[in-house]
């Protein structure tokens, strides 16, 4: 095992030696690491003093966890240039050929670069965080408890691995350092947006959800590493000299995969679309199992947690809940006002959001949205039981008529998103990453247009004109 890992260390040592020779990287990193904690501390104090003038009643201790997370983030952004130049930089300097001709496996070269790319920003982040913790301890402020500190260090580590993994993928796929640096915004901006949500969780002290966030970031980071190794080809690095945006090739490749050589609509449905569905069959089976698990888990959670809340509720609270229910729109008045086109566009938009979220996260966020949608069914079923209403007639009349079309459409559309994520992290010999993505987009478009859209259209018509009448009869009975 040690002999297999020894080349990784040799590549990492070489990379580390080259890095410490470049003062253009070391000097900004050192300045930001040592100076930013002081700036952050002063900014936090000024913010608190300003807000407390207007009755905000904030204390510096509430901002310390968020400040630690931000302090750990900025050194990573500066040292990200090391990962961005890991392969494409050597190509421009003319030093990549000796590296690629070394008797090392592809994964050994990749992990050697990844090791240095991750260790350098993490070292800078940990030093910066340690300096900040020393400063606030000297000011007599209470440090976050051990669990929060552990989450903060894990978050910093997860962010570094995620960003470095994405940067190395970009370095492998780029043909110039300039192009790689320009693409860095597609790493920094999404992670910065992600940190805004994590900051809210830290401010409100929601530790359980924050653990799930850490797990999600690590999963995406591992998938990025898998993508990088899957699409790492030495010949590809040496052969490409310049990137060109060829719209004709993009449209032609997409249309060829979408049409699949079909000569008629019947041939397209019977052969081309059927092949795409067949390839996505394992993902569809997995989504079916996820749906059962999600519905059951939400049902159990509602039955355990909400039932305790109802039992402990006072008569006044129960009366308030009843008043809120009475203020809901009457089903009879809504009948005839439901628009099938609105329902269809709303459901279609949801499917597109699942696709876009999955495409940017290797299916992780898309599957999460799918789980939340399915979990609503189990949650509503449990709530009906808790308030003393038999849920089976309600579901047979209010969910089943349009659900037999809408739920399969949701499962199929989400399964294709999961399938795309699985293909992206699978080695595709002889194909560039762009070709693989275009083929997957064509597969999704085929299933979306040929299966999902017709099912959603049928579901919208039934939900608008049939379901309200059936549900009104059941409730009236």
Stretches where pLDDT falls below 50 for ≥5 residues? Answer: none
Would you report the number of β strands?
0
**Class from helix and strand fractions:** mainly alpha
Gross morphology is flat
Number of domains: 2
Query: How many whole angstroms does the radius of gyration measure?
Result: 27 Å
How would you portray this structure in words?
The protein is mainly α and 477 residues long. The chain folds into 2 domains: 238 residues, no CATH class; 230 residues, no CATH class. The protein is built from 22 helices and no strands. Helix 1 packs across helix 6, helix 17 packs across helix 18 and helix 20 packs antiparallel against helix 21. The longest helix has 33 residues. It is flat and about 80 Å long. The mean pLDDT is 81.
Secondary structure topology:
Blueprint: H1 2-20, H2 23-52, H3 60-84, H4 88-93, H5 96-100, H6 106-138, H7 146-173, H8 177-182, H9 185-204, H10 207-230, H11 234-239, H12 247-259, H13 265-279, H14 281-312, H15 315-326, H16 331-334, H17 340-359, H18 364-386, H19 391-398, H20 400-424, H21 433-465, H22 467-476
